[in-house]
Design goal:
The protein is mainly alpha-helical and 321 residues long. It has 14 helices and two strands.
Length: 321
């Protein structure tokens, strides 16, 4: 029993750490899907782009933090190209994203020279540095890697939420939000909506690529297929966060809900795996989770209407008169 509890606790700790690292990707999806109202399929390719780029740079001896920065920047380039395809060449948004996603698969193969690239034992990552600095192996033994990944994820999550909250309160950030809310009205107010779309796509894919680089450092290998289904996972994190934590119309709260939604999603996956579900069914489970989360608002509206009591009261008063 002790061993099973220990194994379960270890799995849950690993799920939380992964959830925060993938939550950075969900923040990028939130920018395009919720703020810009743009279904960007580039995500699947840019996530792997960040992981593949970071893997090569680290194996070449580059500092892992600098490798993360470069991964972020190269992700913004992917978003820039998607934005140009959509705004300048007038290609529909979802098609522009699909085209970029397909192109990035070949780009990632070129970057790594093959389908995957494992890190050597001597390769230094952010997690291994934290592990060494805090001597986590002496404190947590088998769970040291998960704890170091958790610490890394929390640091990046807090920093990014603060930066994004500040950025979207600036004039440019407000213009991006206005573009997503009402493009015609924003254009009438003198906002260059094409530029705002491109900037939002660059920022979003930069975050997605950064998340891919963080996940790569945590699992210590890059793979061209590591981003498959990333867009669905991002959407699941956003929807779960909204359903569980609700919507308080506060931007910082929405960003935090996205991160927590990603953690909850990973915990659900980990629990189901511990209960014996096969890993080959994970995509099906993800689809079910997303569909169920999307249906919650509709079910609430149909079965638990907020104005039901008021309507009954008004009807009674009318009959009494």
């Amino acid at each position: 029993m002790f061993l099973s509890i220990a194994a379960f606790s270890s799995a849950m700790l690993g799920a939380v750490s992964q959830g925060i690292l993938w939550g950075v990707m969900a923040l990028g999806v939130y920018i395009t899907f919720k703020i810009l109202d743009f279904a960007d399929m580039t995500v699947d390719g840019s996530f792997a782009l960040g992981g593949c780029t970071c893997a090569i740079l680290i194996t070449k001896g580059m500092n892992p933090l600098l490798a993360l920065l470069i991964a972020f920047l190269i992700g913004t380039v992917a978003g820039l190209i998607t934005g140009i395809l959509h705004t300048k060449l007038k290609i529909p948004g979802i098609l522009a994203g699909i085209l970029m996603m397909l192109a990035l698969y070949s780009v990632n193969l070129r970057i790594m020279g093959g389908p995957n690239k494992p890190l050597s034992r001597s390769s230094v990552t952010v997690m291994s540095k934290i592990n060494e600095m805090l001597k986590l192996k002496d404190l947590f033994k088998d769970n040291a890697n998960s704890v170091s990944a958790l610490i890394t994820g929390v640091i990046f999550a807090i920093a990014l939420i603060i930066i994004l909250y500040w950025f979207f309160g600036t004039e440019i950030g407000s213009a991006i939000r206005a573009t997503g809310n009402n493009e015609s009205m924003s254009r009438a107010q003198g906002v260059n909506t094409d530029t705002m779309k491109i900037l939002a796509l660059m920022l979003a894919n930069g975050l997605v690529s950064l998340s891919g680089a963080l996940v790569m450092q945590q699992q210590r290998f890059g793979d061209v297929s590591m981003g498959i289904g990333a867009i669905v996972i991002g959407l699941a994190s956003i929807i779960i966060g909204e359903v569980v934590l609700g919507n308080r119309n506060r931007f910082w709260y929405s960003l935090l809900a996205v991160m927590l939604g990603s953690v909850i999603y990973r915990l659900i996956i980990a629990i189901v795996l511990q209960l014996g579900m096969k890993s080959q069914d994970m995509k099906l489970l993800t689809a079910v989770i997303v569909a169920a989360s999307l249906s919650v608002p509709v079910l609430k509206k149909n079965f638990f209407p907020k104005n039901k009591g008021r309507k009954i009261t008004r009807s009674t008063e009318t009959n009494g008169d």
